[in-house]
Specification:
Chain A is mostly helical and 353 residues long. Chain A contains 16 helices and two strands.
């Protein structure tokens, strides 16, 4: 392929991204870094939900469950035996888990695989259902996972949760994960498999008639999405260094759904932008809840106002701009050229990112 | 795709990067509490105590210079992810010298690694899960822990109520309830010398509202006493439904019951329920207790909750440690905290043990005539 | 298990099941017309209980007056909800409508947190409903006897409305084919508003009775009952009113009797309903009394 100008842009942008990461890692304070890492984790999670909801058209509300599976698997694999002993002071941990201690990368992969397995086991029966039935069944499965985690005292430490997970979610872990997820989704969207997903989304019967194994496509998409959710959950656990079953409620799925819908169902670019936007707004909008202090006088804050704003935003988007921020469009350099910000490409063809 | 990410960290930089330099003449105490969400009520009670202490003792002497104490309140929203953000913000951007809080052990645990990493001492006020301070040199607490509370209630059941058989109802999704139940079971079995002294352990989940099935099973077990630690909302409903089913065995619980809503929801059924807590207004323990009570009654015109007294104590202990350290260096304040002996707090004398948990007496209260009434004090 | 114990457990199950049934009817009516899971149904239920509470607490109205005002106000709120959140999306993909429903549910919950505060409130139960009755060794509160009666009265009224009145006929028409109904000069919007209104009325009815049986209010009180009653409606065959009642009783019975016979499983209680749902969906997706739906190509 000939080197086009857009490829140069892409290379330059990738280089700038790496430079920015290095600079950020060196100069940002830990709070800014923490929020930035959270953004990256939300990118992974939003893309994973978008894969099923946006690309395959399966409305799944079970993401918190897969995140929980990933987070717990990874935590139990990476915690040192001493940490486990300290955590399990109510009931001792099952012997086969007590001594396991793996490095982070294999543990993360295993966490993803276990979550994918859970996704497969749940998906295989549940994906025979459609639309709202599927939504409620996946929601139910997530709830079942949470209840099971709560009750398996000698494996998950039950309601006490786990503490002292190693702090592995650093810049050089979460950002490559986010970048990999983006790259994977872009490649997938362009592949024939990605087109099969979209065909299933747009018209299942027609897709079947075209020779696509609809059920298989659905299950694979669901399991892949669970894999990403598991990895995202594990990253989140290792960022907080403590997890408990109460973290993984429907609220968490709602937050991710918010990101996906705001960004535009079916748009990778949209999910990425919205992941940043929502994570940062969640912090910026803190002032809405707290008692506001204007220096000379203080208001009695309205706790909860921030969530009202977010619910309104979600409904507003669904009612007035169903396509979200990006619709199902993706980023490309030609957007900038059309807007006159960059010189027009030599050839008329779009070079997609 | 990479590119769209590019500009956003820059945005993030603008959004959060601006941190103000700390004024040298103030000491900052971070108040890390849930102001919204499920734990908001508890957070508000603790903050009341901290603010009251701040009004009474607004400054601290470090070396020979007088510093003003400034409170920086950060809402952790009863959510673990938010809690970690809030704690990080306190230590990084607000550069607080000591962190106070949080109500809710799991929220405190989210702040644990952050304060440890930045060497900022933190004082939990009413978080009773042992894991909060375990293995974290920088986390202290001014209350006792679940094992002690469970043991206290087992002793009360055995010695004062002469109970031989007990049934446990626990909120399985609540760390506090599970912990208390476990330690009650252990010491009750030891006290009675009877391995089958616990007739059954029944579970329920947070937000459950119907407990009739568990209670009917319980009734058929005919226990002498029922230990039901948990949230006051569910507990009040349990006690109400138990009385409707004709269960007469007394209910025992933990400090979480001490809220007006407990009686408001359970109404007459809560009469005679017994629970352990940190502090009773009827028996001021130290001189500080009197100071606290007088100030609180004057300002709010009502009786304080136990955790409000703990908020008051947390502030005072932090202040004392800063003064003792004679420095604003986190490690030095930590050492000063660790060396504090028999500090007279509003809710009792505070001495930290090797796990940085306060060893102090517990108070047992009951509901009588629609009011919480003092029964007895139990020494550690 | 002894007989008196079993009878007591059955009485418990009857009381809980009839509440589930009452709320499930509302779900099933809305679904029958719009093919929409009204995620906000549980929150409408919560609103009904709160309105009744404030009528008593703030305006010092007697409980029966509060009851009537609350169900009327809540029914109107339900109609408003449909206008704002669902009607504009009638021709949109189902995913959009569902997201809108989830958004509406969260909005109502969060507005309730802001307005009513997050702390629970104790409800003053009317004396007449707070009488302890004993039948042999089985003790039951009067409210738990009243609820099943209400449930069956409402069931009878609804069956009459749907089966015998012109509005009911229109409802059935809209449910079968919305466009064809429009061609028959049926005012579809009016019928849908009516259905939403009566569904919400039933939710409020259930919410208030719920708050008399479990006298405690909080802004999230509708979430779990909402989900469970939806499950009850699906089990019975969604869109089918008798099915909803059957599903409600079945769910209440299975929940309580499982705990009664297997006390070690009490911690898993919230999972029972979902397991049951998944089993029913896989074995007989149209529910016990539902008719099979054929997808139109």
């Amino acid at each position: 392929m000939r080197l086009q100008r857009t490829h140069l842009y892409s290379l330059a942008a990738a280089a700038a991204f790496v430079v920015l990461l290095v600079a950020g890692d060196l100069f940002f304070d830990s709070f800014t870094l923490r929020v930035a890492h959270l953004c990256a984790i939300y990118v992974v999670l939003a893309l994973s939900l978008n894969l099923v909801n946006g690309f395959t058209g399966l409305f799944s509300l079970g993401h918190a469950g897969f995140m929980a599976v990933g987070a717990y698997t990874c935590a139990l694999l990476t915690m040192t035996p001493e940490q486990k002993e300290m955590n399990f002071f109510l009931a001792p941990i099952v012997p086969w888990l007590a001594q396991v201690h793996l490095p982070f990368v294999p543990a993360l992969l295993i966490a993803g695989l276990v979550a994918a397995l859970a996704g497969f086991v749940i998906g295989a029966p549940a994906l025979r259902l459609k639309d709202d039935y599927l939504a409620i069944a996946t929601l139910g499965f997530a709830e079942i996972i949470r209840v099971v985690l709560t009750n398996m005292q000698s494996i998950t430490n039950g309601a006490l949760g786990l503490k002292g997970l190693p702090m592995y979610s650093t810049t050089w872990v979460v950002w490559p994960c986010a970048a990999l997820s983006v790259a994977f989704m872009v490649l997938l969207a362009r592949s024939s498999y990605g087109r099969a997903l979209k065909a299933v989304r747009d018209d299942e019967i027609a897709a079947g008639a075209m020779g696509i194994d609809v059920f298989r496509v659905k299950v694979v998409s669901f399991a892949t999405s669970s894999f990403m959710a598991g990895v995202g959950g594990a990253l989140l656990g290792h960022l907080l260094t403590t997890i408990d079953p109460k973290m993984f409620t429907f609220m968490l799925t709602f937050n991710i759904l918010l990101v996906v819908v705001l960004g535009g169902i079916g748009s990778i670019t949209g999910s990425v932008i919205a992941a940043f936007g929502v994570t940062i707004l969640m912090e910026v909008l803190r002032f809405l809840d707290g008692p506001m202090n204007f220096g000379f006088f203080e208001t009695e804050g309205r706790p909860g106002l921030r969530m009202v704003v977010f619910s309104l935003v979600l409904m507003g988007v669904v009612l007035f701009r169903q396509r979200g921020l990006m619709g199902n469009r993706e980023f490309s350099w030609s957007m900038f050229s059309r807007a006159g910000l960059l010189p027009r490409p030599v050839e008329g063809k779009d070079s997609r990112a | 795709m990479q590119r769209s990410k590019l500009f956003l960290p820059v945005l993030a930089l603008f959004a959060f990067g601006a941190c103000k330099p700390a004024k040298p003449t103030t000491v900052k105490l971070g108040v890390f509490e849930p102001m919204t969400g499920a734990n908001a009520a508890g957070g508000a009670m603790e903050v009341e105590g901290i603010k009251l202490a701040n009004q009474l003792y607004p400054s601290v002497k470090v070396g020979d210079k007088e510093y003003k104490i400034e409170l920086v309140v950060s809402d952790n929203k009863s959510d673990k992810v938010e809690a970690a953000n809030a704690a990080q913000r306190l230590v990084d951007q607000d550069k607080v010298n000591v962190v106070l809080g949080s109500w809710g052990s799991s929220l405190s645990m989210a702040a644990g690694p952050i304060v440890k990493d930045k060497k900022v001492p933190a004082i939990a006020l009413s978080a009773t899960n042992p894991l909060v301070t375990k293995g974290n040199d920088y986390y202290f607490r001014v209350c006792f822990i679940d094992p002690f509370q469970g043991t206290v209630m087992a002793n009360y059941a055995f010695k004062d109520l002469h109970a031989k058989k007990a049934v446990i109802i626990r909120e399985v999704s609540n760390d506090y309830s599970v912990g208390l139940a476990k330690f009650f079971v252990d010491s009750f079995k030891k006290l009675t010398g009877d391995e089958s002294a616990i007739l059954g352990e029944l579970n329920y989940n947070t937000n459950d509202q119907d407990f009739t099935a568990q209670l009917t099973t319980l009734k058929s077990m005919k226990p002498d006493v029922i230990f039901a630690p948990g949230n006051y909302t569910e507990s009040a409903l349990i006690i109400k439904q138990a009385s409707e089913l004709g269960i007469t065995a007394p209910f025992l619980g933990g400090d979480t019951w001490e809220t007006p809503e407990f009686i408001d929801v359970g109404k007459k059924a809560t009469e005679g329920a017994v629970f352990s807590t940190f502090f009773a207004t009827e028996v001021p323990i130290t001189d500080t207790s009197k100071v606290f009570l007088d100030a609180y009654r004057k300002q709010y015109n009502k009786e304080p909750a136990a955790v409000t007294a703990l908020g008051f104590d947390g502030y005072l202990v932090a202040r004392a440690a800063i003064e003792k350290a004679g420095s604003l260096d986190g490690a030095k304040i930590r050492d000063a905290l660790a060396s504090i002996q028999a500090f007279p707090g509003a809710a009792g004398l505070i001495t930290f043990d090797q796990n940085r948990d306060a060893t102090k007496s517990a108070v047992i209260k009951t509901v009588k005539g629609g009011k919480f009434t003092y029964l007895t004090t139990v020494q550690p | 298990m002894t007989l008196p114990l079993l009878l007591q457990q059955l009485a418990n199950a009857l009381a809980l099941g009839s509440l589930y049934a009452l709320i499930a009817i509302g779900y099933t009516m809305v679904y029958g017309i719009l093919r929409l899971i009204n995620f906000a149904h549980g929150d409408v239920f919560m609103l009904g209980a709160y309105v009744a509470f404030y009528c008593v607490a703030l305006f010092l109205l007697p409980w029966w007056a509060s009851f009537v005002i609350a169900i009327v106000v809540t029914a109107l709120l339900g109609v408003l909800l449909e206008r704002v959140a669902y009607r504009p999306l009638r021709d949109s993909p189902r995913i959009s409508v569902m997201i809108s429903a989830i958004g509406a549910s969260f909005l109502i919950e969060n507005v309730a947190v802001v307005l009513f505060g997050g702390r629970p409130k104790g409800v003053a139960v009317p004396d007449i409903l707070n009488v302890k009755l004993a039948f042999g060794s089985v003790s039951i509160m009067s409210v738990s006897l009243v609820i099943p009666i209400f449930t069956f009265v409402i069931l009878a009224v609804l069956l009459w409305v749907v089966g015998r009145t012109r509005t009911g006929m229109a409802m059935r028409a809209v449910s079968t084919d919305l466009d064809a109904a429009r061609l028959q000069a049926i005012d579809v919007n009016r019928i849908i508003s009516f259905t939403f209104g009566s569904g919400s009325l039933l939710a409020a009815f259930g919410g208030i009775l719920w708050s008399y049986k479990y006298p405690q209010l909080n802004p999230l009180m509708g979430v779990m009952p909402g989900l469970k009653c939806f499950i009850a409606a699906v089990i019975g065959g969604i869109g089918n009113i008798q099915g909803a009642v059957l599903g409600g009783f079945l769910l209440g019975g299975i929940e309580l009797l499982t705990i009664a016979f297997l006390p070690t499983l009490t911690g898993y209680r919230d999972a029972f309903a979902f397991v049951l749902l998944i089993v029913v969906l896989l074995v007989k997706p149209s529910g016990l009394l539902g008719s099979r739906q054929v997808e139109k190509v």
